[in-house]
Amino acid sequence: MIYLKTEEEIELIRESSLLVGKTLAEVAKMVEPGVTPLELDHLAEEFIKDHGGVPGFKGYGGFPNTLCTSVNEQVVHGIPSNQPLQNGDIISVDCGVLLNEFYGDVAYTFEVGEVAENVKKLLETTKACLKAGIEAAKAGNRIGDIGFAVQSLAEKEGYGVVRELVGHGLGKNLHESPEVPNYGRRGNGLKLKEGLVLAIEPMINLGKRNVKQADDGWTIITADRLPSAHFEHDVVVRKDGAEVLSTHEFIEEELNKKKNK
Ligand code: MG
Ligand code: MG
Predict the structure, then answer these.
(1) DSSP letter at 5?
(2) Which pLDDT value is given to residue 261?
(3) Model pLDDT, residue 1
(4) Model's pTM, two decimal places?
(5) Under DSSP, is residue 32 helix (H, G, I), strand (E, B) or coil?
(6) How far is the CA of 261 from the centre of ligand 2 (A)?
(7) Residue 187 lies in domain
(8) Total domains, the chain
(9) Is residue 95 part of a domain?
């Protein structure tokens, strides 16, 4: 079942997405060597509740926490641990919020201290893949056009595109139809209609595309143990192109403040 959203519903999803963006900005302030993912998780949970939201992931399918925190070779769905972050790590922080009956779902991959140049480039390219995917999400295009845009950019750099996990529709449910793969063929798949709200979320590996599940039953890791990056936005399909409902702006403001200190 595919739900096209009304303008009122789109505004509610925007509000939820913005709360996630602000939550991740609080996380951004704290990310540094020595901090534990569990500390980030507690902060995020408090912040969401203080702003009238409900953590969207906690309890979802039995997931134990507010944030998915995925460090280095962890791709997504990492359970926040009490292992301190180290200089040179990257950490993908994925967060969902339920507010006014609608979900927002946003992810950002942070650098911890000084990160190797090749890893920085992976992050930049993954962000560019997200942008390319968003640009392909216009009415009349197809789901395969989004995946094609993401995949071709990533593979041009020699990176692996994760196949097993995908983006999704978003609304009253955290995961709605359709699935939004980060790979695909042009002109293939479901036709995009105005009012379709999608979470687009490339997961790009420095090495090969293959992944496996860790023993905790949640965390997805790269098979070759090389780092993986993940960025996510919520968008609505419009006639002339996708409108991004979420924002990374608050996050990047905080990161810039830290850089200029
Ligand atoms: Mg997410
Ligand atoms: Mg998602």
Answers:
(1) P
(2) 83
(3) 87
(4) 0.98
(5) coil
(6) 33
(7) 7-259
(8) 1
(9) yes
State the sign of the Cα–Cα–Cα–Cα dihedral 247, 209, 164, 80: negative
Ligand 2 center to 120 CA (angstroms): 23
Can you say whether the dihedral through the CA atoms of 206, 210, 216, 219 is positive or negative? positive
Supply 250's token pair.
């608050």
Distance 114 CA to ligand 1 centre (A): 25
Distance from C-alpha of 92 to C-alpha of 165, rounded to nearest angstrom: 15
CA of 165 to the centre of ligand 2 (A): 9
User: What tokens does 38 get?
Assistant: 């569990």
Ligand nearest to the CA of 200: 2
Residue 1 forms part of a structural domain: no
Q: Is residue 2 part of a domain?
A: no
Complete edge-to-edge strand list for the sheet that includes strand 220-222: 74-76, 220-222, 211-213
> Which ranges of the chain have pLDDT less than 50?
none
| Residue 21: CATH number of its domain | 3.90.230.10
Q: If you measure from the C-alpha of residue 9 to the centroid of ligand 2, how many angstroms do you get, rounded to a whole number?
A: 18
Shortest-distance ligand to the CA of residue 57: 1
Contacts of 106 (CB under 8 A, 6+ apart): 17, 20, 21, 24, 94, 95, 232, 233, 234, 246, 248
Give me ligand 2 centre to Cα 28, in Å.
19
150 found inside a domain: yes
CA distance 139 to 213: 35
Q: What are phi and psi of 12, to 5 degrees?
A: -70, -40
Measured over the CA atoms of residue 159, residue 161, residue 162 and residue 166, the dihedral's sign is: positive
